[in-house]
């Protein structure tokens, strides 16, 4: 084997993985669908303000504004995490279907907040300026 035929795979650090997560358009869409599934029935007005905003961040991300949408996604995920964390849930209801969906939603919101915050902080807008 020659050196040309061997391709080295580099290991990504945790920061690079979170940044890639924050620049992806799929996690805000997944979070929006989990929030909608949880608060659609019975309809709750304030939590249902988050899915359209998160869907918009996914759309803007697909249009090429990766750095700005990462920040918006992180902000909305953090706000939802703050809102959802204020509600108390009895211990036995945490292991039902609604409790598991709530836990998954809050976990995804936390990862979105960290990943989007890192992508926004470490992102470069020079690439986006040249696209216009």
TrEMBL record:
Keyword Transmembrane helix: yes
Transmembrane stretches, start-end: 43-62, 68-85, 106-123
Superkingdom assignment: Eukaryota
Keyword line: Membrane, Transmembrane, Transmembrane helix
Stated name of the protein: Uncharacterized protein
Taxonomy of the source species: Eukaryota, Fungi, Dikarya, Ascomycota, Pezizomycotina
């Amino acid at each position: 084997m020659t050196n040309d035929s061997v391709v080295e795979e580099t290991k990504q650090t945790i920061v690079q993985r979170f940044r890639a997560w924050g620049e992806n358009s799929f996690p805000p869409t997944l979070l929006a669908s989990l929030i909608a599934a949880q608060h659609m029935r019975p309809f709750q007005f304030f939590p249902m303000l988050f899915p359209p905003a998160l869907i918009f961040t996914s759309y803007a991300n697909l249009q090429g504004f990766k750095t700005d949408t990462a920040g918006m996604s992180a902000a909305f995920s953090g706000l939802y995490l703050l809102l959802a964390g204020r509600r108390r849930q009895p211990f036995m209801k945490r292991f039902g279907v609604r409790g598991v969906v709530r836990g998954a939603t809050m976990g995804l919101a936390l990862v979105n907040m960290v990943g989007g915050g890192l992508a926004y902080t470490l992102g470069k807008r020079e690439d986006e300026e040249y696209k216009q």
